[in-house]
Design a protein that fits this description.
It is a single chain. This protein has helices at residues 4-17, 30-38, 104-109, 125-133, 176-195; strands at 44-48, 56-72, 92-95, 117-121, 138-142, 151-155, 161-169. By secondary structure, the chain is α/β, with parallel strands linked by helices. Strands 1, 2, 3, 4, 5, 6 and 7 form a seven-stranded mixed sheet that branches. Helix 1 (4-17) packs across helix 5. The chain is elongated and about 55 Å long. The two termini are 21 Å apart. The mean pLDDT is 90.
Amino acid sequence: FRSTEYLAKIIAQFRKKYPKVTYEIYSGNAINIRDYIERGLLDIGLMSEPVDMRKYNFVNMPVKEQWGLFVPDDSPLSTKERISPEDLKGLSIVTATGDFNQSRIGKWLGEYKEQVEIAASANLPYNEAVLAKENIGVMLSINLNCTYENLRFIPLYPSLEVATVLGWKKEQVFSSTTTAFIDFAVQYLKSISNDK
């Protein structure tokens, strides 16, 4: 997520107050993160909405994540300024998104969702990018402000954006350090919202 930049800013500011605190960062998809929080292996997760409000407390991150395609430079799509659902008709896709029928992507694709083939799925964008570079399929992903050699990001149209949150399990008993970090993160993010 681009929201990870804000998480890094929170950690940097918290380290100024508490320099001896160390952090363990785990990267995964939404299913991995939620599962690890549920099993007590992660205290806090950066997750895309929707979030089950019955299970989690959370604070909104200040940016929205934009969906689009990473296409090889030699793809006929590479000259487009935006990608419509019809543009994906008959294409193979590499993505982290699983079942199109249950996802925002499926709703965005509408009548074309049955005309798109998921050639491969992966839980890390770098792996998806490597597959896209080999023309296994175009990479359907959020814009991570990353560049991948010989791939160009093109936003979806109509625009598809998703909000992200920093979330933690309700009723969880945390260490004093984790509690202090959560409180700090909430205040930090509120202060950014108030500044805008």
